[in-house]
Amino acid sequence: MGKVKKKCCRSKPKRCKSCPVVALRLKKMDAKNLSGKEYARALKTARIY
């Protein structure tokens, strides 16, 4: 995923990719094992408010 920020900036309409909330959601989805389109879909779902 890359570097994760310390605090969420709460940017609208979607959270940024380096947001700690997004990182936590991806971890819960076990996105580390996903690749390509599956990872992109998981990231899109994780960034939604």
Provide a descriptive summary of the structure in words:
The two termini are about 20 Å apart. The protein is an all-alpha fold and about 50 residues long. The mean pLDDT is about 90. The chain is built from two helices and no strands. About 40% of the residues lie in helices and about 0% in strands.
Total strand count, please? Answer: 0
Strand content: under 5%
Structural class: mainly alpha
- Basic shape: globular
Helix content: 40-55%
Write the layout of secondary structure elements.
Blueprint: H1 20-28, H2 37-47
Short description:
With 49 residues, the chain is an all-alpha fold. It has helices at residues 20-28, 37-47. Helix 1 crosses helix 2 (37-47).
What descriptive keywords fit this protein?
49 residues, mainly alpha, 2 helices, 41% helix, 0% strand
